[in-house]
Amino acid sequence: MSTGPALRKVGSHTSIHDAALNHALNLNDDLQDAIAENQMDEAMDISAQIIDIWENRIIEHANSEEESLYKEMSAHSEELAKRVIELTREHDILRVLLAQIKEVLQKEGKVTDEAVRKFDTLIIVDEVHNDYEMEALELFHK
Length: 142
Ligand SMILES: [Fe+2]
Ligand SMILES: [Fe+2]
Fold this sequence. Notes:
mainly alpha; Four Helix Bundle (Hemerythrin (Met), subunit A); 89% helix; binds fe (ii) ion; Hemerythrin domain-containing protein; Hemerythrin-like
């Protein structure tokens, strides 16, 4: 996972966000298609792939930020220190949603409407988060 310089630049950081989010978005579409065709085993396989992206790319990315970039931003100004608290809370919301999805899949043994709704919610929360994070990164460079 990229750390350091790539996270400090708006361009490369945005590319990291967009690549992972587009991948998740495409898989959410595939998931809805599989469910519409009543391919429930296929839907479980796709869900596992979606979870893998969230855990191993997007949450890993968030962990890297909290360990490096966010510390530097917090030290930069009071305004950014406040934003880092908000951004970290948004990471936590992603972590909570992901845990809820895994729990419902495990409990029900199939992809439920609730899981589908939360896969979509992850995308929306992350889009809002990424915009706010890039605004913060621009303040960091001012
Ligand atoms: Fe983030
Ligand atoms: Fe980020």
